[in-house]
Task: structure prediction
Amino acid sequence: MGWQLRRAHAEDVDAIMLLETSIFENDAWSTTMMARDVADPACYYLVAFNPDEQVPDDQKRIVAYAGLLAPRGALEGDIQTIAVHEDARGQGLGRVLMQSLITEAQKRGAREIFLEVRADNPTAQGLYQRLGFEEVGIRRGYYQPDNVDAVVMRLHILEPTTTLATETVEK
Result:
């Protein structure tokens, strides 16, 4: 399916929060926290929609979002959040969002990206592993009030290499 992504705006926060509170019922972020991150230049938030069915600027039709904290020039980034509406799952949208965040982190100079994922979410853990993330630790009872552990994962980003094109001229 051809998902379209765009940078999230302050006007998207209400739609993001509709997904946030429906998907992460017990440990959803507050509207204040989400609005702060969406507006923060050190963060990079995306929203997703299906261009065949939806109008891109209709915030009520956003089917997914994801956010990255990666200040320019910092060597580390952090995937803050990612959520995909139940009806849009299993179609590669989570992978597309993650790859977009990884690309942005690399552009900003990050060499490592971290994230936390619920220990009881093997589907998300599998996606992150397929993208190259590795488990580096456990945060006991991180997700409250459910008291669910977080698996901390890290991705090493290869530093881009540039080679000069050389032209051989025969005489």
Helices lie at 13-23, 31-39, 93-107, 122-130.
